Amino acid sequence: MSRRSSRTVAAVGLLALGSTLVACASTSEAAAPLSSPSGSDAGNHPEWKKYTFTIGDNGGDGSQELAKITGVFDNAPYKVKFARFTYGPPLVQAAASGDIDLGSVGDVPPITGAAKEYGFKVVAVNRSLTPTQSNENIIVPKGSTLKSLKDLKGKKIAVPQGSSAHGLALNALKSVGLTPKDVKLVFLDPAAGATAFNTGKVDAWSIWNPQSAIAVKNGARILAKGLPPIDQTSSYYVASGSSLTDKTKRAALTDVLQRLAHEFAWAIRHEDKYAEAIAKEEGIPLDDAKASLKAFETRVTPVEKSDIEAEQKLADAFLEAGQITKKVDVSSITDNLLPAGYDSSKLSVG
Question: Is the keyword Transmembrane assigned to this protein (predicted)?
Answer without folding.
Answer: no
